[in-house]
């Protein structure tokens, strides 16, 4: 049992009655959470409460959660946060707020002398941060009642809490007033209290400080950089700035980066005079850009000079009001009290076309899969080819970091959309090349059966049909022990590729001696339609890393044009010879007997100096990315980024030249694009579909249905009923009510024939 009291039970209903939008906070923490009866976890999509107050039923549910704290979803109320531990400065900035914004009765203290003041927004607006000061607005939240994680004491309200103050009693503040206070207060901060670290950007839609524009102008970037001192910034900040400048200006920003970098102790910390130059060459920007630089400069008091364009495309729309820098670098969310802007769902990011233009054995195999298919699926053909080459290369090659070529991948396409053809071609090609021993069974009935197959031949590709049903069969709560062991063994095999997989100990050692597998290479290529895969997984599969091991390839076209009069002949001899060359290996590995306990001597594939530097940069990028997403379900998925990039770059190099492979910058760049696409797909689709219980899964399924249908036109109640026969009418009503209560779906009345009104439903996407 938690030692914390339930603040939600004490004050939740009163705060709602007083006009505040609240949400549940984890016990003893500051983040929104949800409770499943046993454990607390991060609450998804909590920002919706900035737009819509929770229902009485939701507050009643939260009140039953053990130790539940209360947060304020900002929007109709804003918070002025003075995160300063110097008492004199904190008092001075509070006095300035009362002078400029009004004498509010609502002041909250967590860790004194830090404090927060609360005001009623004239119209909701996005907040802005100039560390250690912040205006909390739409898309942000603040703890009202809970146990402070540092003091371990309840938050204090010297003038009375919001439980005792109606929202209408708070002083009204406009956005321009709040931003004017923020700028004036920051200018009064002593230099010692201003930030010395560049915070990694938050890429969530609610992050008010991140500009949607990555492109900037040289004049504006130079002006902003002059306000960002670089004498004592940490190494991560230095690297982030390199990525931001390159995203903003491309190669035109090189000199600005080198000049700005000269004053940093990190510029040469490795003992090499060209450290900054090397960083620039290997920088591969992801989320940062011009808007991020403007934000960092704004935190330090920067005001864009008159006549300088921040963005070439928005020069005419510039507004140089020095008290409203946020308006220059932000695209604020719509006001919560206004009708939300419904739209059809944003299209899933298409597979990068340049990744399909690949040569070597991978390209040959993928092209044969496409050219011989009635329903060509080039994305799935590529995924299958990568996995097949990885299986043949097992125990023959390795990376200098000891990364191996074992890959787990799943291809997703519609039913009867051609997803199975690549499996057919791989089997035929392996047989024609005399490599049938590399083929594992298509149905894994038990963990022991899978290990037995690898004992006979330690490098295998398992081609699994209906991969979604397979995943469900090995992860469901009611699964038998022999099926559950498959998932466990797959995890063990993935991490044992560069070492030894220890066999099972039997009681009768003479009759059944333990068989160890030295450096096993188990590869998986499975195909499935979307729903069975996502609905088979719980959020635990995201956090425990099991899902992160899989690269997900999803076709852009479920049902491509079918070929007519297709004639298929023997497989090209060039493809057969290429597969055989990979299986022979390089550097003397070709004579290795394929026995499980034989000690292989895999060829260590060299890499160019540029590729080496790029992989070092990817290590730093993963660290930064992981820190950004620390505490979220995404962190485990991101944690495999560097490993999967290395594996794919290694396989691509082997494919290009099996006899004398070398990992080049091109190999690494290709691998980065591929893995990032797969990670993005996995994060987006699992968020849309993966659920912890049947009810949550059903709610998500209904939302996805409405989201898809509204692209064709208004979605009526009849449409919902006819299209969701998997649920009873009463259950659908409950699921629909849940979506509307959470602000994910809105109900609209529109005129129909005969003057009657019809109810239609639309999913809401806030821009």
> Architecture of the largest domain, according to CATH?
3-Layer(aba) Sandwich
Please provide the count of β strands: 22
Q: Roughly what percent helix?
A: 25-40%
Overall geometric form: globular
Annotation field: number of helices: 27
CATH-defined topology of the largest domain: Rossmann fold
Which sheet architecture does the biggest sheet show?
6 strands, mixed
Give me the Rg, rounded.
Answer: 29 Å
Could you please describe the fold and organization of this structure?
By secondary structure, the chain is α/β, with parallel strands linked by helices. It has 4 domains: about 5-190, no CATH class; about 220-330, no CATH class; about 360-605, 3-Layer(aba) Sandwich (Rossmann fold); about 695-765, Orthogonal Bundle (Arc Repressor Mutant, subunit A), CATH 1.10.10.10. It has 27 helices and 22 strands. Strand 8 and strand 9 form a beta hairpin. The longest helix has 25 residues, at about 665-690. Residues about 200-210, about 270-275 and about 315-345 have low confidence and may be disordered.
């Amino acid at each position: 049992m938690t030692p914390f009291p339930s603040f939600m039970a004490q004050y939740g209903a009163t705060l709602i009655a007083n006009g505040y939008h609240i949400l549940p906070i984890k016990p003893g923490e500051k983040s929104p959470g949800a409770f499943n009866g046993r454990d607390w976890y991060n609450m998804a999509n909590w920002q919706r409460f900035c737009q819509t107050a929770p229902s009485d039923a939701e507050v009643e549910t939260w009140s039953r959660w053990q130790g539940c704290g209360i947060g304020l979803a900002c929007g109709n109320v804003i918070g002025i946060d003075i995160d300063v531990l110097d008492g004199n400065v904190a008092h001075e900035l509070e006095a300035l707020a009362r002078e400029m914004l009004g004498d509010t009765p609502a002041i909250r203290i967590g860790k004194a002398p830090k404090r927060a003041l609360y005001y009623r927004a004239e119209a909701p607006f996005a907040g802005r941060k100039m560390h250690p000061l912040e205006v909390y607005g739409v898309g942000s939240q603040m703890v009202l009642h809970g146990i402070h994680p540092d003091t371990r004491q309840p938050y204090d309200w010297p003038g009375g809490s919001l439980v005792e103050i109606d929202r209408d009693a708070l002083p009204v503040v406009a956005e321009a007033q709040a931003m004017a206070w923020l700028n004036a207060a920051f200018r009064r901060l002593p230099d010692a209290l201003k930030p010395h670290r560049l915070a990694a950007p938050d890429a969530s839609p609610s992050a008010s400080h991140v500009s949607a524009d990555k492109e900037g102008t040289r004049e504006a970037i130079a002006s902003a950089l002059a306000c960002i001192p670089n004498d004592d910034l940490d190494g991560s900040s230095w690297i982030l700035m390199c990525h931001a400048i390159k995203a903003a200006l491309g190669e035109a920003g090189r000199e600005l980066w080198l000049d700005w970098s000269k004053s940093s102790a990190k510029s040469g910390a490795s003992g090499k005079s060209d450290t900054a130059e090397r960083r620039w060459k290997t920088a591969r920007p992801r989320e940062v850009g011009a808007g991020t630089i403007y934000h960092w400069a704004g935190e330090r008091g920067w005001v864009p000079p008159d006549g300088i364009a921040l963005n070439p495309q928005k020069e005419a729309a510039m507004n140089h009001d020095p008290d409203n820098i946020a308006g220059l670098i932000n695209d604020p969310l719509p006001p919560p009290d206004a009708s939300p802007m419904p739209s059809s769902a944003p299209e899933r990011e298409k597979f990068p076309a340049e990744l399909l233009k690949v040569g070597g054995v991978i390209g040959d195999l993928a092209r044969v899969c496409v050219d011989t298919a009635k329903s060509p699926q080039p994305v799935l053909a590529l995924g299958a080819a990568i996995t097949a080459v990885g299986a043949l290369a097992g125990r023959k090659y390795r990376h200098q970091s000891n990364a191996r070529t074992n890959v787990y991948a799943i291809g997703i396409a519609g039913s009867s959309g051609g997803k199975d053809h690549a499996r057919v071609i791989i089997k035929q090609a392996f047989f024609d090349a005399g490599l049938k021993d590399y083929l594992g069974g298509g149905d894994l009935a038990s963990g022991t059966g899978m290990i037995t197959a690898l004992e006979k031949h330690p490098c295998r590709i398992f081609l699994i049909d209906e991969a979604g049903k397979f995943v469900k069969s090995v992860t469901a709560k009611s699964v038998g022990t022999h099926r559950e062991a498959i998932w466990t063994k797959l995890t063990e095999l993935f991490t044992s590729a560069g070492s030894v997989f220890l066999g099972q100990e039997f009681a009768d050692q003479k009759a059944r001696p333990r068989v160890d597998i030295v450096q096993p290479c188990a590869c998986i290529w499975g195909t499935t339609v979307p729903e069975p895969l996502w609905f088979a997984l719980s959020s635990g599969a995201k956090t425990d890393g099991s899902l992160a091991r899989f690269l997900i390839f999803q076709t852009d076209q479920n049902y491509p044009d079918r070929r007519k009069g297709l004639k298929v002949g023997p497989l090209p001899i060039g493809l057969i010879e290429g597969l055989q060359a990979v299986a022979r290996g390089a550097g003397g590995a070709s004579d290795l007997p394929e026995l499980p306990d034989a000690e292989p001597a895999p060829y260590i594939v060299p890499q160019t100096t540029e590729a080496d530097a790029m992989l070092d940069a990817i290590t730093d990028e993963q660290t930064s990315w992981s820190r950004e997403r620390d505490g979220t379900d995404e962190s485990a998925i991101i944690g495999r980024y560097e490993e999967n990039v290395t594996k794919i770059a290694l396989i691509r190099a082997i494919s290009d030249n099996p006899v004398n492979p070398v990992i080049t910058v091109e190999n690494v760049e290709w691998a980065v694009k591929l893995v990032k696409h797969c990670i993005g797909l996995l994060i987006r689709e699992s968020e849309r579909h993966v659920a912890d219980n049947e009810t949550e899964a059903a709610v998500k399924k209904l939302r996805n249905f409405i989201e898809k249908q509204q692209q064709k036109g208004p979605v009526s109640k009849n449409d919902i009923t006819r299209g969701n026969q998997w649920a009873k009418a009463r259950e659908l009503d409950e699921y629909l009510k849940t979506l509307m209560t959470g602000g994910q779906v809105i109900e609209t009345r529109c005129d129909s024939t005969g003057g009657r009104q019809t109810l239609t439903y639309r999913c809401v996407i806030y821009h």
